[in-house]
Amino acid sequence: MGKVVLAYSGGLDTSVAIKWLNEKYGYDVVTLTLNVGQNEDLKLIEEKAYKIGAIKHYSIDALEEFVNEYINNAIKANALYQGKYPLSSALSRPLIAKYLVMIAELENAEAVAHGCTGKGNDQVRFETTIKSLNPKLKIIAPVREWNLTRNEEIEYAKNKGIPVSATKSKPYSIDQNIWGRSIEGGVLEDPYFEPPEDAFEWTKPLSEAPDNPAIIEIGFINGIPFELNGEEMKEVELIKFLNQYGGMHGVGRIDHMEDRVVGIKSREVYECPAATILIEAHKDLEKFVLTKHENEVKEYLDSLWTKLAYYGLWEDPLRKDIQAFIDSTQIPRVTGKVKVKIFKGNLRVIGRKSDYALYDVKLSTYGSESLFNQKDSEGFINIFSLQTVLAKKVEKLNARREEHKKV
User: Fold this and answer.
1) Exposed end of the chain (fewer CB within 10 Å): N or C?
2) How far apart are the first and last CA of the chain?
3) Which helix H or strand E contains 112, and what residues bound it?
């Protein structure tokens, strides 16, 4: 029997996949679970994998690597897909794929497998990364190949004695890591239906959020958060705190129509309290310390970086090229502090300071002590408007010529 290494989450899709890979292909199944901050008992996941039929299981703590190499790059890129979704599931896929390849090579496995459907983005993300790292590995996607519906999977799991948390009455597909929690399926597939409270775990409804606003001061160094309310914190702990604190205030619920890589539109629901807060604060600090031209170019490149990461093109040279530009803007200038006020699901930046600020109160003030000579603006306007004025003049001249032709 050959070996296959399966990316195993402990959920419905990958639990069914263990049995399917063994029955359909005759493979010995080695399972792999990465700790990326999903708040789940990895020991129980391991026990479940063995109970279903895995011959070997790897549990790898990749949380620090996930934060340092993936989340931090997303913060620096202000990574919001379609201006709304802070990449969370999308960020973890290339990391999981990397370890899939490593374990497959270690185990001399001939194949790797994942539990993605044929409609989702993750199949693209996993397989593009795997192919780029080791194109010789066979890739198997049981759910896609079997073409089962979620209810059929639940029925299969029941018949095979596979324990799963999903039910036909609550068939949510959940994926979470330290940067966000995604919820799909069930009643959420009706885009006009308000997500029920039982879909959420990280964020409180606004009716239960505190009645008083809270102010958070976040310190950044080289574009990376390192300090909260004046106290230095390990970044993992800082993110965990903001997830809990922001979620308590109802911050970070996201409900939007998303364009998937495979071409379909999908209603997506997320909980991303820490990501929402940190990206908003980081964007504001950049506006404070980078030039107008840098911010304009970076906004475009941030969007492109985010699309590449969302599409699963983490290993693509262009993503790395853009990363190099982004990194050059961060060190050392995106360093300072940002004050954020959160209240019943809302957040806004209310203050910022930095030694690298391009703001000079002596220039910006409307008071009598301003160093800005207002008379200089007249010449600037004459030059700035020159081509617009000339273009309008030519437009009027040609309009008169056309009128004369009619006469």
Assistant:
1) C
2) 91
3) strand 111-113
State yes or no: cis peptide before 191, omega within 30 of 0.
no
Q: Which residues pair with residue 60 across a beta bridge?
A: 34
C-alpha torsion angle, residues 62, 301, 125, 185 (rounded to 10):
90
What is d(CA 264, CA 245) in angstroms, rounded to the nearest whole number?
A: 35
pLDDT digits (tens, 9 = 90+) for 243-287: 999 999 999 999 999 999 999 999 999 999 999 999 999 999 999
Tell me the pTM.
0.92
- Among all residues, which ones are annotated catalytic? 13, 93, 122, 173
Instruction: Give me the amino acid identity at 349.
Output: V
What are the Cα distances from residue 192, in Å, to 171, 187, 213, 227, 347? 18, 10, 30, 40, 25
Whether the Cβ atoms of residue 340 and residue 216 lie closer than 8 Å to each other: yes
Q: Residues 107, 113, 115, CA angle at the centre, nearest 5°?
A: 140
Q: Enter the tokens of residue 298.
A: 């970076």
- Residue with the two structure tokens 């690597």: 65
The span from the CA of 24 to the CA of 281, in Å, is 50
